[in-house]
Give the backbone structure.
Amino acid sequence: MTVGVREQPRGAGSPRPRPGARPGLVGWLTGLAVLAGVGYRLWLLLHAAPPTNSDEATMGLAALHIARGEGFPVWFYGQQYMGTLEAYLAAPVFAVAGGPSLLGLRLPTLALYALFLLLTWRLTLRLTGDRWFGLLVVALLALGSDRIVKNQLIAGGGYPEMNAAGAALALLAVALATGRPERRSADTWRPGWRLVRWATWGFLAGLMLWVDPLVLPYVAAIGAVLVGCCRRELWGAAGALLGAAATLGAAPLLLHSLLTGRNPLHAVLAAGGANASAGWADRLHGGLVLGPSLGMGFCSPGRCATWQLWWALVLPLLLVIAGVAAWRALRTPGPGPAPVAPGAVSPHVVAAIRLALLLAAVATLGAYTVSSSAGLTPVESARYLSCLLISLPALLWPVWTAARHGLGRSGTGRHGIGSALTRSVAVVALAATLGTAAHATWRAAETVPATRAAEARHSELVSTLRQLGVRHVRAGYWTCNRLTFASAEQVVCAVVDDTLRPGFDRYPAYRREVDSAAAPAWVAPAGSPLAEVLDERQRVSPGSLDLVIIEGWRIYLPR
């Protein structure tokens, strides 16, 4: 596999298959891969996997308040960044279902994953025209390691929607840059639809600015392609509409900043570790070694075995190869402005979009590596690299081309030994990618019974508190909002730390309500430091607390 691989983008500059054409074997296989990816994740949701937590419950509580008309939060409770789009998507589900549930909260994220899968498949076809390569990309995205399914299904703020938005922005950019007015493509230049596409692109870009800034490298890189290809058009109505739509998408952020005078960028930098410090050795290891393998779905739950880190070594090489190939294609002289066949994509547009996706991936990796989060919490913070999946079609296209054609078309007789070696290396790389991702998916699926059992124990905790008539409790951070959400606010919880002092309450109203209660109970996971402190209090002051024990939990009732 070398930089000199000659690409064969069969679909670039060629028309789409005619409408009504039979999908054929590759079409049926792609459909099965899509169903497998969605079905696997639906199976996870029905088994309460991946495991939920209090952060996700916080988004669920926001959705509950929206459904009841009790509040319309702009930000994730307790902070001034990360928009609550997931809460607004789940609120109608709660309203129709008659109450909150973990499944209801996650159904919109499942729909966002399905949308991302379909958009990426369509984007792959527009950039390469190779349906078998599209099948490969869909198959990879159908797999799901522990970190991947957490990013895609947990409604914890931003991650499920970013990838779908990034793929949509790239796909819209292909249509806008290819069908620009001066090319006069009969299929794509329809002034009304172009304005709709411009408005949609601007709205999605502004919306992502509110939801989560992690996708901004993709917004900036793809936007640069549009400016380069359509700068004349942007001086007119298209540019005005784009700006207005972007302002509308970012309206929650802009209005909140104007009304409060707070800059959400400061909160984002603090969340990325700007207020903490980590050594550069730890940052480089977390950002460039653990990060890519975890963030792109090649690791077991909660850890990366040494052999699973091979992707971190290959990724820089793939970025260079794919980047050089896209740059060469971009610099290749073209025929100039000319009529474009219906459905055709300009080769220069294809190269520009691919290069933009690769540069955005490099920027994402770089920003994560220099942050302290990469060094302080590398396993959990690998979620910050979830957007790298958007670049998968551009990243793997040269490898796929090499696997099919080596250094050139088969049968030319040129580069015989080198071509065969290149094909072998490329095939091994693709097989290793699929195999490693499949192994990580299998290991993630193995954890489902334990996750389901833990959720059943939590449901028993909620049921027990209701039977005991407990309305107010104090508990640790990772217990509180999850308990409040699971009980639909029938049990209200205030956070305490392991020394029984007040902790971080994301929704201060709960703290006020618990503080005003006569005798709140205490709840702690069995074996936790909080349980040990409460057990010690019970030993020091016998009779002050009644202890109720259920599997996995300890409930302390004041007398």
User: Anything to note?
Assistant: Residues 1-20, 182-189, 336-342, 409-414 have pLDDT under 50 and may be disordered. Residues 416-446 form the longest helix (31 residues).
